[in-house]
Amino acid sequence: MHKHHKAREPVRFGCGQCFGGDAQAAWENRQRLSEIATLVDESHFDLRLVACPDCGQRFLWVFTELIDWQEGDDSQAWCLLPLTEPECARLQAMKDPSAVEGVEGWCGDRPYLMEVHPSGKDTTVVRVEKGFRFLPHD
Ligand SMILES: [Zn+2]
């Protein structure tokens, strides 16, 4: 903790490479993130802990998929949520994967990146300022 840290000042996450202002550029950089651990590895729900090779910023990588039984165009979403090192360690130590839902409570006030492909629509990359939620998945 910095001595003069103000409580209202938002915490900054990552560097210009992994979590800069340009959502698309940060998103493309995800290929360079190195995997720390796989928390859940299911075909419609995939959770990993990853880190930026440049600044060490930890992220929760989330993939959710909802099957479109009618049109066959499944809804998919990928999220990259920055984590502090203690949060990352806490997730890595969790025995029960469902406990990860607690992340919505700890991390609801911070920005995250999301690539969404809603069924029948184009894929877009957005930076969301707050309110991280796990999307419904099969
Ligand atoms: Zn970085």
Please give a structural write-up:
- This protein has a six-stranded antiparallel beta sheet with strand order 1-2-3-4-5-6.
- It is α+β, with helices and mostly antiparallel strands.
- It has four helices and six strands; from the N terminus they run ααββββααββ.
- Zinc ion binds next to helix 1.
- Strand line-up across the major sheet: 1-2-3-4-5-6
Straight-line N-to-C gap? 41 Å
Average predicted local confidence, pLDDT: 90
Low-confidence stretches: none
The number of domains: 1
Number of strands: 6
Computed CA radius of gyration, to the nearest angstrom = 15 Å
User: Which bin fits the share of residues in helices?
Assistant: 10-25%
Bound molecules: zinc ion
Tell me what portion of residues adopts beta-strand conformation.
25-35%
How would the global form be characterised?
globular
Helix and strand element order: HHEEEEHHEE
Number of helices: 4
Taking the sheet with the most strands, its summary is:
6 strands, antiparallel
Structural class: alpha+beta
